[in-house]
Amino acid sequence: MSVRPLRRRSKRSLATRIRIVWVLAVLALIVGGGLAYALITAPQFRIMAVETHIEGRLIARGDVLARAQIDDGENIWLIHTHAAAARIAAIPYVRDVRVERRLPATVAITVTQRAPVACLLGAAPLTIDATLRVLQSGCARPDLIGIDASLATPPKPGETISDPALGELVRDTATLASAGLMVRTARRDEFGQLVVTDATGVRMLFGDDADLAAKAALVAPIRQAAKRPLRAIDLRAPTTPVVSYR
Questions:
Q1: Considering the entire predicted model, what is its pTM?
Q2: Is 209 exposed, middle or buried (0-12, 13-18, 19+ CB in 10 A)?
Q3: Could you give the 3-state DSSP secondary structure of residue 139?
Q4: Which end is more exposed in the chain, N or C (fewer Cβ atoms within 10 Å of the end residue's Cβ)?
């Protein structure tokens, strides 16, 4: 009985393998292109609604929609959510913004508002938040802390002031507010020391920023011990505060 030897399987050449890879790649591109075309042209993906969720009352829905530049009927897959969010974030009062697709045909925009904390006094008053972003020209509210600050070039709403000294002054007023002081105005004197006036018109000299919270805690006991209306409280030497009366 004779046995026929097995034929050795020939190995595909490199050129053949390359042709197969190219064919598969072309087929993948065709299929992918067809799916992309279907997504772009499908009527169920045409935007039917743009929902806005705005935290706060100082940001107008119309301004948000105008910055978003999202039109009804536009394909939801063609909108650039990051670009839309960046345009909305340029609104001075906007703190955070998120633009999301909600399939099949809704875009949701969520916006949170910056909080005004002070008004920079001067020829052209400006409202700022805790990060020194300019929120608007003029004072947003009469109860905001007024801060004396001389700026060489007044910034525009939406810009952020780069001034470490001003940032430190804003943080000082926040410390005093946390201690229960109703600060009306704040400034640095010619020696760079902190001077504030409270809601009752009492002038307070805090000196440098060292132990500011501890100095602020002395104000209430001094007020309670005062027999007459106060004009000023000098806390530059907190162990021996000095008061003057009206």
A1: 0.80
A2: middle
A3: coil
A4: N
Q: 243: which 2 tokens?
A: 């008061």
How is residue 215 annotated by DSSP? H
Same domain, 88 and 169: no
Phi (first) and psi of residue 38, to 5 degrees: -65, -40
204-226 pLDDT tens trace: 999 998 899 999 999 999 999 99
C-alpha radius of gyration, the chain, whole number: 33
pLDDT tens track for 162-203: 999 999 999 999 999 999 999 999 999 999 999 999 999 999
Query: Same domain, yes or no, for 57 and 79?
Result: yes
- Amino acid identity of residue 83, one-letter, is A
106 and 123 assigned to the same domain = no
Range of the domain at 68: 47-113
Q: Do the beta carbons of residue 69 and residue 87 sit within 8 Å?
A: yes
Number of domains observed in the structure of the chain: 2
